[in-house]
Design a protein that fits this description.
The protein has 371 residues and is an alpha/beta fold. The protein contains twelve helices and 14 strands. Helices cover 33% and strands 23% of the residues. The strands form three sheets. A seven-stranded mixed sheet has the order 3-2-1-4-7-13-14, with helices on both faces. The chain has a five-stranded mixed sheet with strand order 10-9-8-11-12, sandwiched between helices. Strand 13 and strand 14 form a beta hairpin. Helix 1 crosses helix 2, helix 6 packs antiparallel against helix 9 and helix 9 crosses helix 10.
Length: 371
């Protein structure tokens, strides 16, 4: 693989938990992390969340158009705060994800973003992988591999992202090219914050169980946890991925429980499915680095450590920013895309061969070129 140019790249992420938009700058050549730059966050208003939620599970129509407009406007608002940006990686917002039928939908206009920011924008990262038979997710693993190398890790390490959906990356930093066989294995393990956030919104009028305050007072219904684990997804050999709607029924499964018991049981479901995911790795990780909002829930973190029997730490313990890791990941993938390098591989998405992805919009002529 030839060397790429070092660029100052701005990445963004709007996840399934619908808390808001993260944005972060890194300097990278698409192979190495050179340095970390500034970051920022824009929370969605409740009205904006409602508009986006109305588009979940849809592929077209006025609800999808409205969600796309909200997502684009929110990103323009946030990303325009940054200066001296050479390239932008724009994930958009996933509304629907159906890789079994070769389709995925992330809304948001890279064209509008490029026009407003005056910088090239790489977007629509998942479509090429899905079209080639991959799961289209998760896409952060190539960046996790770069983080492991940046940390100086010399043995396999696992990254666990606790966003709306939980996804796991097992990576071997001794293999320098993340697209090479054995360099990484990545897959969605099951639910993370999405069902718990939905529960808190429905029952308590709150966006989240902050610091696990409600979960800490509840009793876990182990029979419900065990029943969830019988779902065929959890025995399926990875790579594999989930849509947010695939775990939407979990709030109904705990529907008869008191608030605290329901919250605690949802945390236990996440912990149990994560532990099941560890068992599917090439080797069971001795240490797990956790990113995403779920790392702030001490109940969830302790349940994962207990059920998995391993050390579980937030990525901050290793000098990384758990709030911005996924935004940084799309900056990293953007740098790879403009080089024409793979951003997914059989070990990360199940695609048949390493796959380039992303489309780039050049603000000079607003042309969209798919890689």
């Amino acid at each position: 693989m030839s060397k790429g140019s070092v660029r100052r790249v701005l990445g963004s992420m709007s996840g399934t938990s619908l808390d808001g938009v993260d944005a972060a700058v890194i300097e990278t050549d698409g192979e190495r992390i050179i340095s970390f730059g500034p970051s920022d966050y824009r929370e969605y208003t409740e009205e904006e969340r409602d508009v986006i939620r109305a588009g979940f599970g849809l592929w077209a129509g006025p609800e999808v158009d409205a969600a796309a407009d909200v997502v684009t406007s929110a990103h323009i608002d946030l990303l325009s705060r940054f200066e001296k940006i050479e390239l932008v990686g724009f994930h958009g917002q996933t509304l629907s994800h159906d890789p079994a039928n070769g389709r995925t939908l992330q809304v948001g206009s890279g064209d509008r973003l490029a026009e407003k920011l005056g910088a090239p924008v790489v977007w629509d990262f998942r479509s090429a992988d899905v079209a080639a038979g991959g799961q289209g997710a998760p896409l952060a693993p190539f960046y996790h591999h770069a983080c492991a190398r940046w940390m100086g890790a010399d043995e396999p390490v696992a990254f666990l992202n606790l966003g709306g959906i939980a996804n796991l990356t097992w990576c071997n930093p001794r293999i320098l090219d993340p697209a090479e066989d054995g360099a990484l294995l990545a897959f969605d393990t099951g639910p993370a914050n999405a069902p718990l956030n939905d529960l808190m919104t429905l029952r308590c009028g709150l966006p989240e169980d902050r610091d696990g305050q409600l979960s800490a007072t509840g009793r876990v219904r182990e029979d419900i946890v065990a029943a969830v684990l019988t779902d065929p997804f959890y025995a399926k050999v990875p790579p594999k991925s989930l849509d947010r709607l695939d775990v939407a029924d979990l709030t109904e499964r705990v529907g008869a429980l008191p608030d605290a018991d329901a919250a605690a049981t949802l945390c236990a479901i996440t912990a149990a499915t994560v532990s099941a995911g560890f068992a599917q790795c090439p080797s069971r990780p001795n240490r797990v680095l956790v990113t995403g909002g779920g790392r702030r829930n001490p109940v969830l973190m302790s349940m994962i450590a207990e059920r998995a029997g391993t050390l579980v730490d937030p990525v901050e313990a290793f000098g990384l920013d758990g709030d911005m890791l996924e935004a940084q990941a799309f900056a990293f993938l953007a740098a790879r895309s403009v080089q024409g390098w793979p951003i997914s591989a059989p070990g990360s998405t199940g695609v048949a061969a390493p796959c380039c992805g992303g489309s780039i919009t050049d603000p000079e002529n607003l042309s969209k070129i798919a890689f």
